[in-house]
């Protein structure tokens, strides 16, 4: 494929992805005042935001406890499996070839 054909193909693909628009617009830079206004919280929202954050922390703690419990169970099961595999390997070593 030639470079012209590949360039045309790229432009066509871009037009399809962007809905036929070839205009590339850059994001508008926000001023510090606009950013502050966008993220400013009133005094009432601060207490509700703190309560929301506390609730989220409690939920996260519960999830982490579940994950910890699950990982402990998996560790226990894997140790049981390893001991069974070792026991089976020892039994098979002790058997004679004609007993297999």
Give your account of this protein's structure.
The chain has helices at residues 3-17, 32-39, 43-94. With 100 residues, it is an all-alpha fold. Helices cover 75% and strands 0% of the residues. The protein contains 3 helices and no strands. The two termini are 63 Å apart. The longest helix is centred in the last third of the chain and has 52 residues, at 43-94. The chain is flat and about 80 Å long.
List the helices and strands and how they pair.
Blueprint: H1 3-17, H2 32-39, H3 43-94
Q: How do you describe this structure in short?
A:
The chain is mainly α and 100 residues long. It has 3 helices and no strands.
Question: What attributes characterize this protein structure?
Answer:
mainly alpha; 75% helix; 100 residues; 3 helices
Helices and strands: which structural class? Answer: mainly alpha
Low-confidence stretches: none
First and last CA, distance: 63 Å
- Mean pLDDT across the residues is 83
Oligomer kind: single chain
Radius of gyration: 32 Å
What is the ordering of alpha helices and beta strands? HHH
Beta fraction of the residues? under 5%
Counted by DSSP, the helix tally is 3
* Gross geometry: flat
Instruction: Give the beta-strand count.
Output: 0
């Amino acid at each position: 494929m030639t470079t012209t054909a590949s360039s045309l193909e790229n432009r066509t693909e871009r037009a399809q992805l962007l809905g036929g628009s070839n205009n590339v617009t850059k994001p508008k830079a926000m001023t510090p005042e606009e950013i502050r206004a966008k993220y400013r919280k009133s005094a009432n929202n601060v207490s509700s935001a703190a309560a929301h954050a506390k609730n989220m922390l409690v939920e996260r703690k519960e999830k982490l406890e579940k994950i910890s419990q699950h990982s402990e169970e998996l560790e226990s099961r894997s140790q049981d499996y390893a001991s069974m595999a070792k026991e089976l390997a020892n039994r098979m070593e002790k058997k004679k070839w004609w007993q297999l």
